[in-house]
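Question thread 4412

I'm putting together a teaching handout and wanted feedback from people who do this every day. The idea is simple: show students a protein as raw sequence, then show them the structure tokens that encode its fold, then repeat with a second protein so they can compare. Below is the first pair exactly as I plan to print it.
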Amino acid sequence: MSASDGEGAAMTLELTPGTTCVANGRVIQIDGADSLTHMRVRDVATGAVSSVAIARIEALPKTATASSFEGIPAAEWKRCCDLAKDLTPLNSRTTVARSELEKLAKRHGISVRQLQRARATFRKDPRASALARSPGGRPLGLNQLDPEVDALIKHVIAKHYLRRERPSKEYVVARARSLARRLKLKPPSRSAVLTRIAREDGYQADRARLGCKAAKQRWEARTGKLEAERPLDLLEIDHTPADVLVLSDDRLTVIGRPWVTVAIDVATRCVMGMYISMDPPSAVSVSLCVEHTVLPKSENEGDPGIWPMYGKPKKILVDNGKDFRSMALQRGCQDHGIDLAWRPVRTPHYGAHIERLIGTLMQIAHLLPGTTFSNIRDKGDYDSAGKARLTLDEFRQWMTQKVCRTYHTRRHSSLGVPPLVAWERGLQDEQGQMVPPSLPAAPLKFRMDFLPYVMRPVRRTGITFGASRYWHPDLSPLIRQDEVMVRYDPRSPGAVWVRRPDGMLVTAPAIAGRAVGEPGSRRALDAEAQARMDAMTDEGFEKTDQIEAAAQAQTRQARHPSRRPRTQRPTPRSAAACAAAVNPTDLSALPPKTPSARAPIPVEEWT
């Protein structure tokens, strides 16, 4: 097999074992012949052995060539363009005078021989990039290590580097050099080991070191794109704990980080709804966020036009959390024609829009006093609890202002316009007229269908729920009946709603308890009172433990006589001592008399 170089001299490629060449874009070494048409070869980079057709084997180029003009440096590209400009007129000519070639070579600072080579190349491929000079150095993938040492390095990498324990590269270098010394081989250089480690970079290596999930997150192709053409075509909902600490209403206690539930419109990137609470994510927070999304915002009553987004979405995309699979949410969406869909399991990138929104909102929250930042490294020695200043209600108001007057009014990188402008444009028809979203026909019914509920009996004293009692005369027919579904709004405990069997919706206001602020209703204790209660509780535990321990010991002693303590017996005394101890005048102390025994009668025995 032969090839020609730029000078036309013949070059022969000998397909003998050990010859390095190229096949299918890979650097290979010939192991031997498989047949008259195929050779058995070994991939230099991976060590894999395969059979390759002889027609696909090419000589190894002496220097690497630039594959395209993007990789050509600016100075070299200018030289190529100038040379191509002068060589273009010569392509149509068969012969060129040497004097002309010498003049042209002098202009470009090269020899005539070099110019003739460039002209031959340019005639075959009349592109400026074909004239680029290739950088020197060894061809990519050329292996000059001893095959045994090369195999040793690959063995060490497979055994000690591609592991979940993720040892360092320097550890692998030390292991490879140590193994080579023990096998009486020349230890490989550090760069040789690191070069082969770099060749392992990819999905399989990350899967072995980081796990399947992390490897997919880094290498799996995601060519698809979640799109929505018009507002309300697709919404995403998710939760996050806010990166800030808030105070109790009396501003004396830090009550923790509030949870934020938000809904984003994919087409316009607008925040359609938001619910903030100290309670962890639940079906309640999801339902209230959906309600806030669909119905016109109550925030507009005090600040007209601040949050103009509303409307019933066609589809809602959520994750697979238990809070997103509640019966109330599913049936509410089905009843009102909303397609509720769940992301595939363990695929967080399916909710990329809501994840980016949450990241943006939390970045804004880092401006607040009392922020916890996004990680402990950013937090440093910042005293989040000591710096906290906002109550939960103030945080709600602050976040509303930031969403409506910062996020909605700032240019979005994906849209090219602010979300508010995208919303307004998305609601325009072909004539440019604004077409507002349609409202639910029965807003109160829609609200009831998404509110959380509990099952409670109706007694003569009313409905008891949340340390409060609720009553309305229209509930009288339900007394002593089965438990009824009681809808409630955690944000407004002043009333609950009950639908009677005849379809009538009864609004029962609070008549007693915490909901009406009665004395004796549940209140938070201050730190001093709580400490006093705790001390009394602890003392009570100690006293009761002592009583129980004493009772257990006495009961055990009573039920097991062998475990009773032994009493000391009196020592025997002499008769004189006993007589001396008895008062002679006290006859009662004397022992009672007993009849004396008769003397035995002597009897003569005859034999």
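The second pair follows. I'd like the answer to focus on this one:
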Amino acid sequence: MLINLHVKNLALIEETEVDFTDHLNILTGETGAGKSILIGSIQSALGAKIPKDMIRNGCDSALIELIFHTKSEAVRKKMEEFEIPFEDGEIIISRRITNHRVINKVNDISVTIGRLKELSPLLLDLSGQHENQLLLKPQNHLKIIDSYHRNLITPIKEKTASLYHEYQELRQTLSEQNMGEEQRIREMEFLKYEIQEIEEANLQSGEDETLEAQYQKVSHAREILSDCSAVHEMTAGQSGCAGDLIGSAVQKLYTVESMDAGAKGLTEQLQTIDSLLNDFNRELSGYIDSMEFDGEQFAELEDRLNLINHLKAKYGDSIEKIQKYHDDSVEKYEKLSNYEEYISKIKRELSKVREKLDIQCDKLTSLRKDAAIPLTQLIKEALRDLNFLDVEFEIAFEQSAQYSPHGRDTVCFMISTNPGQTVRPLHEIASGGELSRIMLAIKSILADEEGIETLIFDEIDTGISGRTAQKVSERLACIAKKRQVIAITHLPQIAAMADAHYLIEKTSDSNSTISNIYLLTEEESVKELARMLGGVRITDAVLQNAREMRTLAKQ
């Protein structure tokens, strides 16, 4: 359930905070007051794209924060998967928007937009003003059926999608192998040349790095030898070198020590230094002896490195990649050498995968048809509750000859809203107001199936009035008995049903325009209903009518 919404510096909103309640929360207000901005901020917090121009003028950043409390096991598992702390069912989602970046956090842990979008559908379902139009696309009807029996259908859909991709890859491979005999021979000759070139090089793993180090050493041998000889001259050369000076110093300390035993420690330290210097000089001499420049060795190193770099330029930028290219080429060569057998093998594999895919597609069709029976009945009952008195509703199945990741089913919702008329595809006959009610019916059914705790409807009352509006309000109130519902409406029949009634109001002065949201008291709610009923002039009769609507709604 959505407990709290906090928005700061977003479009017309300077800063507002609202605590939502259980059951039915209704938001009303004049056109342009900022209702859509508020709903849009919830969508944005849950991962929708946020335009940078939504930051309020004069501000450096905007903040949207949602606080949920949930008992959903699916949410708990997702939080564990993301390794996000989750205590007492509380989830805090925040998005801070600046001109340069958007920072997403869940329970104070930074998350990617992808993870935010994974978590969001488990927390609430939001029906925007344009979502009703999705019903006009039959491909979305299939998604509704799959959502209704998600637990049964999803595992089979995943297997179907996996087999479909395997099937497509095999078909692609087969189409790519469609070559003539002459082309096959040319390809084999070229592969043979490349394989031979790599094999003749006899490359060893890590060889290039070792050779580079040797090459650097040999190519700078003269400079190294010169510098090391100079160092040796300083430490062990003619009179006045470091070795002679330290030796003389040791002798003088012996003299001091004979006169003062306290100098013994100094003598021992200098003797150690003298010994270390002698060791150093011996090692340095050995290093110098090893640095004799060998022109033939240098030429061999250079040739070997040139060969390796040539192969890298052709086959990959490392010895490992060259070896992989070689192995792949050998595999291709063997396939082309036994071309007919290779093609037959692909065809056999393709046939096996197609058989498995047919089995999974048939399972999907069977599960969907099983799901369609109770779903059809539930939708019909919900539509009758929404003032479709003589409605007929069916779910029509067709099977395509082509495979897809979703199987081979094509589904279409068929409806008749008038007595005596045969059912026809929903997208051919449904009006805007009918689409609103059909979407409301479907959303309420899917929410029961999926265990969604919060439903948000943005102007679900589009295109309806009178008795139909009253039926919609009753349906919303019925849904809200089992879960939290947040709805924006312009209809007093719906607003009268509110368990918590909020007013979104816009105020302006010479400098700025600000939208705010307020929780209304009972009397304030009656006045807002009167405004919705009576428009500009609110009479005592209108107020009385509003108060009566509110009283009847509570019964």
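Top answer:
Good format. For the second protein you could add a caption like this: The chain has 19 helices and 15 strands. The two ends are 25 Å apart (CA to CA).
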